[in-house]
Amino acid sequence: MLTRHTRHTLAVLVAALTGALLLSTPAVAALMNPTSPVTAPAVVEALSPYLGQVSCDPGAKPGAIALRDILLKTYGGRDLGISRECSRGGRSEHKEGRAYDWGLDAAVPAEKAMADQFLEWLLAPGDDGAPAYNARRLGVMYVVWNRRSWSAYKAAAGWQPYAGPSPHTDHVHLSLSWNGGMKQTSFWTGQAAAVDYGPCRRYVGLPAEAYTKPRTDPSCPAPIALLNLTETPVLAQSANGPYVAQLQHWLGITVDGSFGPMTARALSTFQAANGLPVTARTDEPTWTALRAPRTAATQPTASTQPTASPKAAVTPKPTATPKPTASPKPTAAAKATTTAASPKPTATPKAAAPKPTTKAAPWASGVGSTVLSRFAGLTLRKGATGPAVVALQRALKITPDGAFGPKTAAAVLAFNVARKLPAEPVVRPATWASLARTALPPTSR
Ligand SMILES: [Zn+2]
What we know:
By secondary structure, the protein is mainly α. It has helices at 4-18, 26-29, 62-74, 109-123, 133-138, 178-181, 186-189, 242-251, 261-273, 284-291, 294-298, 300-303, 328-338, 349-352, 360-363, 367-373, 387-396, 406-418, 429-438, and strands at residues 78-79, 99-103, 140-145, 148-151, 160-161, 171-176. The structure holds zinc ion.
């Protein structure tokens, strides 16, 4: 009777003699594991922190490609891919090209054995006594396989049950750190790399820009709120960036910062609905209309007087109006919509000023405020430009050149101080509210 060992030796002999590489029994596969092309440094990387997907940059990164190649070459299995489109599913390092799906079937013993063997190799302690030596050297951030997951950043917890939508019984998912993704870890370079934290998100609600270089400082500058952007760039199809994202936000469509056919369609619809020339481009009147407060559009009374109203949304050139002239109509409309909340629109502004019962009330209480209310949600400071600044300057009775420079800053600071608002040259919602109250029509002064 042949011992297992003898049979195995025979099998290897046969393979060698015939020159066939057809033997893929687990016993033979178990002899092999990936080999680093370089000598390991004395001290290798620590376990990776969690560095989740922040950008949309699915092109396969060199470290993911190298890992794919070494797995397929060493063990076999199927290539289920590195890259994934950003529009699909939730957060995933596949969308940054630094995750790999290695196709193996957990129901096929030989394939399950491959995965298990690789993972044992990956997570075995090193000569340094610390766990997951090869995961550290490859920059493996987490693994999902056969209803379980292991995470470098929760290594002490070991394997955990995985309850995600896919049980991962047909592939091993491997997410790499940025160093791992960029092939900068000691497995490939022979030198231990400092943690690379990857790209920073610059705008709230938008993907970070694509990876360009390592970042070793873990902190990012605070991202900018998209709605604080006040310029009025002309955007058309194929434009990208934060203003496109703001446009998409106002259009109520998916915000991805990329101006495609869907954005063009939504913009055309919006322009048509607001009496603007349908250009599918963002001219200044379109921006003004887009940034008009949503509440005004949803208040039925606001739409009952479409004729003479200087409603921002339909005025092709709001800046052409030398002064939000004292048409009594908006006042009437405003009264109608806010009788409950408004203290007394006919009272002198001074008297009315002390404390509005709600934030909404003052917006609706005058011609000037109708104009100003469009910008109620914006924060303006030095450097801002555009129609919001024009409206601000008109309200402050300074030259309306649309550029928030030192003179505007001084006027804003003086206004804020006079109104007992925070003494800063910045226009925040409280400043807008106070400006709106001062902008009551002359008749009510
Ligand atoms: Zn995957």
